[in-house]
Amino acid sequence: MQRLRLLSLALLAILAVAAIASASAFALENPEILPNPTEAKPLNFTSKSGAGTLITIGGNAITCADDTNEGKFTSARLGPVTVTFLTCTSTGGVKCKTAGAEAGKIVLEAGIHLVDFKKGTTLTLGAVITLSKNIVITCGVLKDEVKGSVMGEVSGVTSGVETSTGTLTFTAKEKGVQLLSKCELDKTFCEGKTFKLEASFNGSTFESASEETTDEMKFAEKIRIDF
């Protein structure tokens, strides 16, 4: 009987260790869109937001009435996106634009990458938008330049549950400083990196900048995201 008790305890210990290992492995899985999109069969999406503001630590700002995005995921968690900001003005109400766009319109090319970040002790779904190149914005006679990446939180999506919508929110914790700047997974993309925007107004030194906006995303088909 004693031997049976010892054997039972040993089996329980083995099962407990296996369960912990399994939970740890699950917790370390990268965020992933299923079924995986590909270059040949991408997952297209659009999004639209209300008003948004880009502001630096020094207080320089550009405000836009809304924006529209068109993009596609071409792998499990990344792809290209075109962002179009509308009715954009700088301080004093001067209209701003990028090259080739009409007054008040800012168009930029970027990449989107789904990530996991820690919210307390919980892994939470996020997304990093990285500019493909420095963006030059003309506001009247002034030329401003923006570079870098911005990280936001994805909400309205439950891991493993089918959806065709989601909300991507970018929040500043203070003027010119983004609330989210670091992620956990995927490790290759996130490890040792801080994601931030920087802006130079009319030739000034680049300084930290923050973006505040909320985008309502719509996917072209129902998918699920595991995170």
Description:
This protein has 227 residues and is mostly beta strands. It has 2 domains: 1-30; 31-226, Porin. Helices cover 13% and strands 55% of the residues. It has helices spanning 2-27, 187-190; strands at 32-34, 43-49, 52-56, 61-73, 78-90, 96-98, 106-119, 122-131, 135-139, 142-155, 163-170, 172-174, 177-178, 197-201, 207-226. Strands 1, 2, 3, 4, 5, 6, 7, 8, 9, 10, 11, 14 and 15 form a 13-stranded antiparallel β-sheet that branches. The longest helix has 26 residues, at 2-27.
Short note summarizing the structure:
The chain has two helices and 15 strands.
Q: What is the number of E strands? A: 15
Domain count: the total is 2
| CATH architectural name of the largest domain | Beta Barrel
Distance between the termini: 45 Å
Q: Which overall shape is indicated by the principal axes computed on the Cα atoms?
A: globular
Please give the largest β-sheet.
13 strands, antiparallel
Q: What's the CATH class label of the largest domain?
A: Mainly Beta
Structural class: mainly beta
Q: What is the count of helical runs?
A: 2
Indicate the radius of gyration in whole angstroms.
22 Å
Could you spell the SSE succession in H and E letters? Answer: HEEEEEEEEEEEEEHEE
Helix content: 10-25%
